[in-house]
Design brief:
- The chain has helices at 3-9, 14-21, 25-36, 44-53, 61-82, 87-99, 106-117, 122-134, 147-164, 172-205, 214-225.
- The longest helix is centred in the C-terminal third of the chain and has 34 residues, at 172-205.
- By secondary structure, it is an all-alpha fold.
């Protein structure tokens, strides 16, 4: 049985199924691969779930929905009492499932990756703290916050409140600086990419024993970018 084709015919997204089953998208893909190839799914509970959900007589979305509801109430309820999934693992699974969503652009994933890559930067930590506080994930304690962070939190609160109320105004100087920085960063990244491609091309096509100093060329390109 081709499970992914069956899910597509039933108009059921695999990522949503993974979330409902409490597993990551890659884990669900591995279970599907095992099941379709006749191998044993390593987790016995999910082997039983697959045999129940993807039986030959499940031909309609309504029937699948009924079985899926039963799985969540019976199969997975006991699973939650036996081995509770950590909040951290749930977050990882959500990000993994999100990455597989075809309809989402790369922008949000790029932003998530940017935050992760710069998690040690003080400004990133402060912004992360702000969103954790205002969404109730952490309790705010003003006694331990620096004046610098308090100032940032106050401005962020006003900014987002004005935006949500459609009362936000334009700051011409700020906007000019924003446009200038965007253009500068984009040109630098584009130039860096072009330089890297050029170096790779030269290294791949220069004859063996060539006297061209690649390190010198790299320094020239780096100097040009800066």
């Amino acid at each position: 049985m081709e499970i992914k084709r069956q899910l597509k015919n039933l108009d059921i997204k695999i990522s949503r199924l993974a979330q409902g089953l409490g597993v990551s998208r890659p884990t669900l893909d591995s279970y599907i691969e095992c099941y379709e190839s006749g191998q044993h799914i390593p987790n016995e509970r999910y082997r039983k779930i697959f045999e129940y959900l993807f039986a030959e007589d499940v031909q309609s979305t309504i029937e699948f929905a009924k079985r899926f509801d039963y799985v969540k109430r019976v199969f997975l309820q006991s699973d939650n009492t036996d081995t509770s999934i950590s909040k951290e693992q749930t977050i990882r699974d959500n990000i993994s499932n999100f990455a597989y969503e075809a309809e989402f652009g790369e922008g949000i994933l790029e932003f998530i990756n940017l935050l992760i890559s710069n998690s040690n930067v003080d400004l990133v930590k402060a912004i992360s703290d702000y969103f954790n506080f205002v969404n109730g994930f952490r309790q705010y304690n003003e006694d331990i916050e620096s004046d610098k962070h308090k100032a940032l939190f106050s401005k962020l609160f006003i900014l987002f409140a004005e935006y949500n109320a459609d009362k936000i105004g334009m700051d011409d100087n700020g906007y000019s600086g924003f446009v200038e920085k965007c253009d500068k960063i984009f040109r630098k990244k584009t130039s860096t990419s072009t330089s890297a491609e050029l170096l790779e091309y030269l290294q791949r096509n220069l004859p063996e024993g060539s006297s061209i100093d690649m390190e010198y060329i790299k320094k020239l390109l780096d100097k040009k970018e800066n």
